[in-house]
Amino acid sequence: FTLLHWEHDSGFWKLNAIFTLFLGLIAVIAIRRYSHMLIRAGTVIVCALLAMLFETEYGAWGVLSVVAFSLTLDNIKRMVLWQSAIFVLSFGVPVFLPVFSLNALQMLILQMPFILALLVIQLYNGKPGHKMKYFFYWFYPLHLFVIYLIIIATK
Fold first, then answer.
1. What are the CA-CA distances from residue 33 to residues 39, 73, 79 (Å)?
2. Which of 71, 107, 143, 148 is exposed most, by the fewest CB atoms within 10 A?
3. What is the distance between the alpha carbons of residues 7 and 79, in angstroms, rounded to a whole number?
4. Helix (H/G/I), strand (E/B), else coil: 100
């Protein structure tokens, strides 16, 4: 990911979605482990701010999305409501701001299929699927490396 990203922006702290998921996981663990609301909220806020500071993919909104998934796993209607609200705030609102950019509209359109992911999540029956764990461990980094090679080859 970093190789691909540095091709377009040489900033060091541009981190991929795995870091966003990691920060979201820390927030979820704090919510489940501690009963004091201030510790829970503080951890979520700190994780969201770290996501913004380190410019992870999806930033603070990604962390909030992970937390919302965790809090609404038992109720698909609440999940759709919360995920849709996070989506609108993160991608929809910038389209209507005075500093509107075509990039904001493109991101809104590109991210809209997230609804399909919620439908797939609702269909999950709680049983493990096929044993393809190691395939996915290798697929993610390898496909990014192949894309990087393609970019290098086409320059």
1. 10, 17, 22
2. 143
3. 36
4. coil
Closest C-alpha to 17, from 114, 121, 120 = 114
Please write the tens of the pLDDT for every residue from 88-138. 887 766 656 555 555 666 666 777 777 788 888 778 777 887 787 788 788
C-alpha distances in Å from residue 30, one per residue of 7, 63, 70: 36, 13, 12
Which tokens sit at 15? 């981190």
pLDDT digits (tens, 9 = 90+) for 15-35: 678 899 999 999 999 999 999
Please, which pLDDT band fits residue 50 given cuts at 50, 70 and 90?
very high
pTM equals 0.68
Whole-number pLDDT of residue 101 = 56
CA atoms lying within 13 Å on the CB side of residue 20: 18
Beta bridge partners, 15, equal 56
Taking residue 28's Cβ as centre, other Cβ atoms within 10 Å add up to: 19
**8-state DSSP, 24:** H
CA distance 52 to 60: 6
β-strand partners of 36: none
